[in-house]
Amino acid sequence: MAVCLCVAGNLFAMDNQFNSDHTMDKNLNLTQEWDKVFPQSDKVNHSKVTFRNRYGIMLVADMYKPKHATGKLSAIAISGPFGAVKEQASGLYAQVLAERGFLTIAFDPSYTGESGGEPRYVASPDINTEDFCAAIDFLLTRDDVDAENIGILGICGWGGMALNVAAIDTRIKATVTSTMYDMSRVNAKGYFDVMDADARYELRKQLNDQRTTDAKNGSYALAGGLPDTLPNDAPQFLKDYYAYYKTERGYHKRSLNSNGGWNKTSALSFINMPILSYSDEIRSAVLIIHGANAHSRYFSEDAFKKLKGENKELLIIPEANHVDLYDQMNIIPFDKIERFFVENFK
Fold it and tell me: What global pTM score does this model have?
């Protein structure tokens, strides 16, 4: 399944410390209330920020900064899961890490959430890699960020994207992935690589027929998110996703997985463009975290095997499933994540 407020006391502050070319997009409609699926911390200041990626798409992020922080801070850009929004898991990670002393941003990728981009609900291995790089661009423009201490953290499908970014962006000192998916691999080969060339050809035919239908209709059909009611024979991993995205625990009105899902043809670009082609050339530090009981565990284990050099770690969390690492505070190893960033920031 392709299914991952305030500064200085002003609850709805808009912090846009960039240059004049990165002003607020007039077409963006930013929510001005706390609408996260997790409670607001009294230990950090929160604001919304915007920045453009290299393709001209305006991205929207929540920024979390430790209260009473002074000087230049180590900073971390966070996104994921695939099909989620910043009000869900990425925002939780960002807020917790800000409580631990980092300046963090959790952003909505292009075409999703509050970020710009048309048509809506499209994923792209190239553009979404660029989204992470643009987040680093933004952080490096800030006077309160230590340019020598920049990290990224990707959850679920954005874990794979984070590794792709670490392979291309030499400004990154440390990368963490949590419950990672390789979206190119799962789209091109299916779960556990069961799809052969003939099956892949049939999938291409189906997706290209959908392109024709979309072109004739003048609109883009959505694949559909999780069902409103689970069938009795639903596999466990689908039940786990449902327990997060379709219940009060993690439901959000802008989340693709909670609602209508991705544009049906989004898978096309992932089939032909493997995102981890150069991950063996990553020279910066990488920590890969996965649950022992996750259906997706093999993505992380295989990605780790490809990494070379020093400062590469794989951490398997006992008895955790894929979705546990979205929001279960007693399971997500925040102490380890904090130490990893601190030890690899200079």
Answer: 0.92
- 174-178 vs 285-291, strand pairing mode: parallel
Q: What is the pLDDT of residues 35-87, one digit of tens each?
A: 999 999 999 999 999 999 999 999 999 999 999 999 999 999 999 999 999 99
As a residue count, the chain comes to 346
Radius of gyration of the chain (CA): 19
Q: What are phi and psi of 310, to 5 degrees?
A: -90, 170
CA dist 141 and 102 (Å) reads 16
Q: What backbone phi and psi angles, to 5 degrees, belong to 322?
A: -60, -50
Q: Which amino acid is at 3?
A: V
**Token pair belonging to 184:** 């190119």
Beta bridge partners of 189: none
Find out whether 129 and 122 touch, Cβ atoms under 8 Å: no
The reported pLDDT for the residue numbered 26 is: 54
The H or E element spanning position 133 is: helix 125-140
Which of 341, 331, 346 has the alpha carbon at shortest distance from 98?
Answer: 341
Cα separation, 290 vs 294, in Å, equals 7
Structural contact between residues 337 and 174, judged by C-beta atoms closer than 8 angstroms: no
Amino acid at site 153? L
- pLDDT tens per residue across span 256-306: 999 999 999 999 999 999 999 999 999 999 999 999 999 999 999 999 999
What is the distance between the alpha carbons of residues 155 and 93, in angstroms, rounded to a whole number? 9
| Domain boundaries of the chain, sorted by first residue | 20-344
Contact 12, 6 (CB under 8 A): yes
Who's near 233: CB < 8 A, 6+ residues apart? none
- Report whether pLDDT(14) > 70: no
Could you tell me the CATH superfamily of domain 20-344?
Alpha/Beta hydrolase fold, catalytic domain (3.40.50.1820)
Whole-angstrom Cα distance, residue 83 to residue 95? 20
Give dist(CA 169, CA 195) in Å, integer: 32
Axis-axis angle for helices 157-168, 297-306 (nearest 10): 10
